[in-house]
Amino acid sequence: MAAILIIEDDSEIREILVTQLKDLGHMPMIADNLKDGLAMTLHGGFDLVLLDVNLPDGNGLDRLAELKSVTSEPEVIIITGEGTAEGAKMAFEHGAWDYILKPFAAHDIKLSVERSLEYKMSKKALRASFNSIFDRSPIIGSSHRIMQSLNMAAQSAESDAAVLITGETGTGKELFAKTIHMNSRQKEDRYVVVDCAALPEQLVESVLFGNIKGAFTGADTSREGLVKKADGGTLFLDEVGELPLSIQAKFLRVLQEKKFKPVGGTEEIQSNFRLISATNRDLEDMTKSGQFRNDLLFRLKTIHIQLPALRDCKADIKDLTLHYIHLLCTRHGFETKGFVPDFLTALESYDWPGNARELISSIEKAVLANPESTMLYPNFLPNAIRLQNLRSSMTKQQSTKPRSLAKAEGMRTIFLPDELFTPIKPLKELKNYITGEAEKLYFKELMEVTMGDIDRASTMAGISKSHFYSLLRKYLPATTPS
Predict the structure, then answer these.
(1) Mean pLDDT of the chain
(2) For a surface tag, which of 85, 152, 180, 375 has the fewest beta carbons within 10 Å of its beta carbon?
């Protein structure tokens, strides 16, 4: 029996789906809006989600990626009464298993559910097998986003398919590429790195494919290209988005045929290599603007691994910090240093635009800041981190200050507690609070003006003495006569 969630606001459709899923031996749970459905997926451990598109509080397709990224990584079947080609395209791009139009036949739902669950179970078994033998030791972190990337890397290592690794600068694209190679069947052969951004445009063809003696001015000897050096092993194209357009067509042929001619040569050379590429650029956008060949992109991304930014994996910062403090202290000849709690707080509050690479550099700066110190302090960190930490503290301090209802000169001020706004409470609660605070302020002023004269105060307030006493006990119990 699988854990299945139905997110659907139409009660009749819900009943039909529940009946069909029960007939298949499952006991589904239901939600009639996106908010509740998303909350349930965070803790429900669902294998499958049946998701409507037009829901009372939003479009299901807009939250598809969020649904797919929860810990249980459920398969998602879209069910909609207003299907469009664009909607289907968006659904499949974000990992939906199927896209079913209403009204639907029972057979369609049954077939799609059974196939998606079979795929889910086979994927679990395959992942367990990979993870038992996959050496991930160079990669630190256990957050959900990192584990997703590691699972993809483990699957990649089991085949010779081309892999494209994308992500911001400093997210560890080359580290993932090397880890895939070290777990692949090519691990005993060469791992050849090509930095496409550093290739001299005039010599890029020669660097990749080699040249024979005399092929061009300065070619005093024949030269073996990097593509040939990778024969039997792995060729890693770093920053593949920088590969000149003039070379892309030739490289595409190499990927298809595993053969090429060196510059100035007439005979073809064979090289059987496994290709891994990486870039921080959006190759899809580059294909639209004509900067990158669409057919080459298809060849590069048989498997696509999108690495998360460090700001999305802050749970990993502590493990990364502990690992690199030890590593860097050892490298520089120090005993492993400790750190005060504020040091880690500063690291965790920073946004890390340079990702893990910037974190490592910052930790090294802190380690070297005072060689004699056995502890690391926030003031050992780069100023950018210290300033953001200070801003965060100031913002937090400001947010805890009570809100003022009125600040104009000559007006009485009522402060509103932050609890009324985080989260926003119903208007009735706000009105009740303001009324109570205003009456308390009124009675305080009234007692000061009348110097505690109850008869005079009740007359000025326009209420009976007994009513006045009850309100006074409520708002100013310390001043109420016994």
Answers:
(1) 87
(2) 85
> Half-sphere exposure of residue 352, counting CA atoms within 13 Å on the CB side?
26
- What's the pTM value of the predicted model, to 2 decimals? 0.67
pLDDT at 403 over 60: no
238-167-247-184 Cα dihedral, nearest 10 degrees? 50
DSSP for 42-103, please give it: HHH--SEEEEESEETTEEGGGGHHHHHTSTT--EEEEEESS--HHHHHHHHHTT-SEEEESS
The answer to whether 472 and 436 are in contact (CB under 8 A) is no
pLDDT at 480: 60
Contact partners, residue 18, CB within 8 Å, separation at least 6: 6, 28, 30
Tokens of 237: 């194209």
Mean pLDDT calculated for residue range 125-142: 78
**CA nearest to 116, candidates 63, 65, 48:** 48
Residue 308 DSSP one-character state: P
Beta bridge partners of 235: 192, 275
Interior/surface letters 258-286, b for 16+ CB within 10 angstroms, e for the rest: eebebbeeeeebebebbbbbbbeeebeeb
426-472 per-position pLDDT tens digit: 788 888 888 888 888 888 888 888 888 888 888 888 888 888 888 88
How many CB atoms are closer than 10 A to CB 199? 20
Task: Return the closest-CA partner of residue 173 out of 9, 364, 307, 358.
Answer: 307
pLDDT in tens, 17-59: 999 999 999 889 999 999 899 989 988 789 999 999 989 988 9
Helix (H, G, I), strand (E, B) or coil at 193: strand
Amino acid at 340: V
Asked if residue 191 has pLDDT above 90, the reply is yes
pLDDT at 340: 92
CA 246 – CA 196 distance, rounded (Å): 13
> Is the separation of the CB atoms in 278 and 240 below 8 Å?
yes
Q: Are β-strands 75-80 and 98-101 bridged in parallel, bridged antiparallel, or unpaired? A: parallel
pLDDT digits (tens, 9 = 90+) for 267-324: 899 999 999 999 999 999 999 999 999 999 999 999 999 999 999 999 899 999 999 9
- Enclosing H/E stretch for 166: strand 163-166
Residues 6+ apart with CB under 8 A from 207: 194, 199, 200, 225, 226
269 and 222 Cβ atoms separated by less than 8 Å: no
3-class secondary structure, 104 = coil
SS3 403: strand
In the block, tokens 């910037």 appear at: 358
Query: 138 is written with which tokens?
Result: 């160079």
Confidence of residue 221 (pLDDT cuts 50, 70, 90): confident
